[in-house]
Automatic annotation (TrEMBL):
Transmembrane segments: none annotated. Keywords: Methyltransferase, S-adenosyl-L-methionine, Transferase, Ubiquinone biosynthesis. The keyword Disulfide bond does not apply. S-adenosyl-L-methionine binds at residues 38, 57, 78, 122. It catalyses: a 3-(all-trans-polyprenyl)benzene-1,2-diol + S-adenosyl-L-methionine = a 2-methoxy-6-(all-trans-polyprenyl)phenol + S-adenosyl-L-homocysteine + H(+); a 3-demethylubiquinol + S-adenosyl-L-methionine = a ubiquinol + S-adenosyl-L-homocysteine + H(+). It comes from Uliginosibacterium silvisoli. This is Ubiquinone biosynthesis O-methyltransferase. The lineage of its organism: Bacteria, Pseudomonadati, Pseudomonadota, Betaproteobacteria, Rhodocyclales.
Length: 234
């Protein structure tokens, strides 16, 4: 039996806010604002239409649903019943088709090995006890030659100032306590996790927030938020 790689307190934290997931002015506003950016980046590299895709840690379904609307055949996996209930309810409004499952990444990887063309795991690795285990599960889910996308937060003083002090205490963009600095992951660490899981890291790109115009952009510099694109070795 696979031991679940999850933190009950983290699940409870996001479950308590689940009813606000699709409110673009709520605590999830940053996810709504970055979603077009990350969606276009993923679509640009793997042409989502017609692809079998799974979003690990899908929460209320913001990314999963948007990939489905681009024509992908999407599975969303999460351990929060409340978040998944909200995700399923929103499908009635959007008309999108997504298979939502309450299941751990490691469990579905055992059930569906090498099943997906595209695997996404965004803003989740910093919330699990063993991120390397999640990376391995994502690798196992991908077909040989498939694309795997991660996003997370770097671990350094600048990231602490920007992602915790700035975002949670100064700008109030996120609820206080959303992130724990010790769980942030350096790009070199994530690259090692990926390599050990049989993934080739082909791109690392930073995600930047400009507090003056309140806009996000992708570009050089991975000091705080960053995304990684990997290909599963054939």
């Amino acid at each position: 039996m696979i031991e679940t790689n999850a933190d009950d307190s983290e699940i409870a934290k996001f479950s308590a806010l689940a009813h606000r997931w699709w409110d673009p002015e709520s605590e999830f506003r940053p996810l709504h604002e970055i979603n077009p950016l990350r969606l276009d980046w993923i679509d640009q590299h793997c042409a989502l239409s017609g692809k079998t895709t799974i979003d690990i840690g899908c929460g209320g379904g913001i990314l999963a649903e948007s990939m489905a609307l681009r024509g992908a055949h999407v599975t969303g996996a999460d351990l929060s019943e409340k978040a998944l209930a909200v995700a399923k309810l929103h499908l009635l409004e959007s008309g999108a088709k997504v298979e939502y499952l309450k299941i751990a990444a490691e469990t579905i990887a055992e059930e569906r090995p090498a099943h997906y063309d595209v695997v996404t795991c965004m803003e989740m690795l910093e919330h699990v006890p063993d991120p390397a285990s999640t990376v391995r599960a994502c690798a196992e889910l991908a077909k040989p030659g498939g694309a795997v996308f991660f996003s997370t937060i770097n671990r350094n003083f600048k990231a602490y100032l920007m992602a915790i002090i700035g975002a949670e205490y100064v700008l109030n963009m996120l609820p206080r306590g959303t992130h724990e600095y010790a769980r942030f992951i350096k790009p070199a660490e994530l690259s090692r996790f990926a390599r050990e899981a049989g993934l080739d890291s082909v791109e690392i790109i930073g995600m930047h927030y400009n507090p003056l115009d309140k806009r996000y952009s992708l570009g050089r510099g991975t000091d705080v938020n960053y995304l990684m694109r990997c290909i599963k070795s054939a």
